[in-house]
Amino acid sequence: MRMRRNKLIFAALLASLTLLGCDEGDIEEHDERVQTSGKIAKLTAHITGIDSWSSQYSIVLAGFAEGNSNAIVQKRLLDSDEVTTLSLTSDDIATIELCVTNRLRERIATFATVSAQQLQGDTVYLDAGNVDLGMYKTIQDLVFTGTCARCHGLGATPAGDLTLVEGQSYAQLVNHPARIEAGGMRVVPGSAATSLLHKVIHGDSEAGVRFDHSNMIKEQNTITLIDNWINNGAAED
Ligand code: HEC
Predict the structure, then answer these.
(1) Which of 32, 67, 159, 206 has its CA 20 to 30 A from that of 74?
(2) pLDDT band at residue 18 using 50, 70 and 90 as cut-offs
(3) What is the pLDDT of residues 69-115, one digit of tens each?
């Protein structure tokens, strides 16, 4: 009798841990996730460019739940940091990311990532190597290269006479006269409102560009990132 009860308790324990499937054949879906709370993430990286970010943003090592862009935990990095540790406080953390977040702790761009399930002992290691995450380079990588350069490329006739390829885009934008807007500038440092780039990505038809660019950049936060970059002086690094 006693043996049987112990067995039952044992089985109940196993089930509640959801680590093992049942042995009857009708296998229930089971969660194989390793618990992450109480563990540690450790980033090793040589980072440059943090100083170029405006005050609305933080470069952080952060933990995110799946499908959620708000960091559950984050730790701010400085240019001089080589090794940063982050205490994981929740089992919901699915990824550990070297990224930039805004004041609401929303992920704006990710530079390196690792699954929180890749524990070695009590630690998840993220080795990012040399990372240049300057504000302008981030915009180039996040927006211009992937979304714009297919029309604003290197060919003889880039759309709007504007090339947004890495290495060329900055000179083509900042303090560069607009083609379509008489007397206008593509990017006026410190003034998004008067910059043609701002008007174009906001779909402002009064700017006179005969091609609708609205909805081309899907995330509102990415549009805000470009505006903030302009308003903060539109620096190149
Ligand atoms: C599918 C093609 C296409 C894509 C992709 C595209 N553009 Fe354009 N863009 C154009 C065309 C065409 C014009 C010229 C419209 C005109 O002459 O009225 C233009 C003009 C512009 C201008 C005005 C240039 C000037 O000085 O008059 C800017 C700024 C611009 N685009 C920015 C962007 C940015 C930023 C992206 C990426 C988010 C982008 N474009 C993606 C086709 C594209």
Answers:
(1) 32
(2) very low
(3) 999 999 999 877 789 999 999 999 999 999 999 999 999 999 999 99
Q: Which atom of ligand 1 is nearest to the CA of 197?
A: 29
**pLDDT digit string, tens, across residues 158-188:** 999 999 999 999 999 999 999 998 899 999 9
Neighbours of 179 (CB within 10 A): 14
The ligand 1 atom nearest the CA atom of 144: 37
Encoding tokens for residue 170? 């900055």
Alpha-carbon span 227 to 225, nearest angstrom: 5
Q: Which of 139, 147, 151 to mutate to test the pocket of ligand 1 (most atoms within 8 A of CB)?
A: 151
For residue 189, give both structure tokens. Answer: 């440092």
Query: Among the atoms of ligand 1, which is closest to the Cα of residue 147?
Result: 37
- Whole-angstrom CA distances from 71 to 79, 104, 138 are 21, 9, 19
Alpha-carbon span 94 to 127, nearest angstrom: 17
The pLDDT, as a whole number, for residue 78 is: 86
Structure tokens at 181: 């807007």
Tell me, using a 6 A CB cutoff, whether residue 201 lines ligand 1. yes
Closest CA to 116 of 33, 19, 30, 32: 33
Which residue CA neighbors atom 10 of ligand 1 most closely? 159
> Dihedral angle at the C-alpha atoms of 17, 18, 23, 28, nearest 10 degrees?
160
Ligand 1 centre to CA of 156 (Å) is: 15
